[in-house]
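haha ok so turns out i had the wrong file open the whole time. this is the CORRECT one, sorry everyone. sequence first:
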Amino acid sequence: MLVNENIQMKCFTIILVIFFFTSSYAENIGVETGFELPRYVSLKSNDSNLRVGPSKNYPISIKYVIDNFPIQIIDEYKNWRKIIDFENNTGWIHKSLIKGDRNGIINSSNKKNVAVFNTYNGKQIGEVTHGSIINLSKCKLNWCLIVNKNNSGWIEKRYIWGVKKNEVFNINFIEIFSNYFYKSINLFEKYIL
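then structure:
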């Protein structure tokens, strides 16, 4: 009887892992680049124009004066990318003004500082203020490692605009598998037991 339960548990875990992997890749694909949509990128320059349409003939709606500002690409048309920013401003920006670097903005619902930890779920080593632009080095299911000059630390993903809820990046296969494994166990305990 115990053997059957172990086999059932392993099968259930494998099905959950497959579900999480396939659902995370079931995104739309951009017609110009072949990259997933929506996706997060950053501005290259501290002088970037957001236009109301995909051409220099369209008027400028916003001028961004901060480099590394995170944006989300939601559509593509030739050399132009339709984006949305942290404040829900939408428009078109030329592809030469963006880079693939991952940055985020601290977005706490109460606009208070967000704790930075030495390891995820570890000891608090500092704070970051609401609205700060941060460099994302890697993200796990619920945590992201941020880097600022020679300092680094972990922040809960829920406080970051610029990364998808279930997105993981710059982590190795073992970390990915362990994240999904423990997430599936938690879901199993929550809904089954």
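The longest strand covers residues 70-77.
again sry for the mixup
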